[in-house]
Amino acid sequence: MPTQRAATGPHVLRAMNAGAVLAALRATDAPAASVSALAAATGLSRPAVTRALAALAEDGLVETVTAAPEAAAPGRPAQHVRFRAEAGHVAGVDIGPHKVLVVIADLAGGARAERRVTVGQDVDGPGLFETVRTALTAAVAEAGLAPADLRAVSVGTPGIVDRERGEILVAPSIPGWAGLPVVPRLREWLHCPVLIDNDVDLAVLGERWRGGSGDADSLVFVQWGERIGAGMLLDGRPFRGAGGAAGELGFIDVPSGDVPSDRVGDAASAGPLTSALGPFERFAGAGAIRRLAEEAGVALGPDGEIGPLFAAAAAGDPAAVAVVDRAADRFARGLATLLLLVDPGRVVIGGGLSRAGETLLGPVRRHLRDRTLTGAEVTASALGERAVAVGALRRALDVVEPTLIASA
Asked: Which of 74, 30, 32 is nearest to 53 (CA)?
């Protein structure tokens, strides 16, 4: 069989040079860079850099800017250029059973608009899709764009996702969501690349990119609320497992000797794993903490809101402190299992319960010490509820960036 030869010639070299210059310009921390600085960063000659910048300017990706007077040297002023991040936009979408959050960003990842829409209590899959479409339309308009202006859209959703086929396989928390052709419908409407991923798998990317964990080669993000799930970055690479179900922490079964078995529940009594809370979620999720507080006589907020529990514990109320400690102990049991398996070194806790901060995370760390061998740094999410959407932006940019260099 004849081998296919790689493309060669001056046009290929020019494209490679333009790509190298664009990458160097985007990597700089300064708002603009000189031709000399780009030549030094790429190893190209000044004429080669100048030709590359001309091609990039023709594509609308760079523009010449005037250097600040204090930066100008005697003689002919240096030419400075900047990357035109506003030349394109992407969207990150966080879809959940309670809210849809859309963030529109430019090509440098700078947020240009954000829209949060509350999801109705009884919404089904088709209704949720319409909520997504409404939120995306509003966010795009707020950014002064049209839906057709987006270069890529990345979506995060609860459940197990087939990323290659763009299909939601299992979505326990959203009735009628699994099997819905979300990606094809969005592509048909937006006419741009659309990706879909598990929400916590995106959240861990967001935390590493913009959450202060950029130096972490291995990182675990745990979403802790009514449901519990984990996204993992191991040795610099996302780990999703063979079927996309890696990190489904909520479905592990842990020893539960401190509660009656009918309180914890089993898979048979609660229904199939694909349609019910998992054993660990029933043991250590927000619902379990709510029950612990009620049994201890600790006051909760309206509709069982557990914020008052943590406020009382922070104020030193003995009953509240005991409940929080017990909840932290339960959570540490399951988390320790994951840490012993993957040894990430760093864990970021997100989700509604992370808002309790050190009142809850301090006891979690204490209970982890005797259950792990090497320990791990445990912190609350710096991005809060935006973690999934920010991670989705990162994935959308990962799709767009190679096309920028290719077009150059």
From this structure: 32
Tell me: the pLDDT tens digits for 93-103?
A: 999 988 999 99
Least Cα distance to 345 among 226, 208, 248, 246 occurs for 208
Task: Give the domain 88-203+388-407 fold.
Answer: Nucleotidyltransferase; domain 5 (3.30.420)
Which class does domain 213-381 fall in?
Answer: alpha beta
Q: What is the pLDDT of residue 404?
A: 83
pTM, rounded to two decimals: 0.87
For 112, list phi and psi in degrees, rounded to 5.
Answer: -110, -25
- For 297, residues 6+ apart whose C-beta sits below 8 A from its C-beta are 319
pLDDT at 2 (0 to 100) = 45
pLDDT score recorded for residue 269: 40
Phi and psi at residue 249, in whole multiples of 5°?
-60, -30
Residues of the chain with CATH 3.30.420.40: 88-203+388-407, 213-381
- Residue 298, classed as helix, strand or coil, is coil
Q: Buried b vs exposed e over 310-336: b needs ≥16 C-beta within 10 Å? A: bebbbeebeebbebbbbbbbbbbbbbb
* pLDDT-flagged residues of the chain (< 50): 1-7, 69, 72, 259-272
CA diameter of the chain: 83
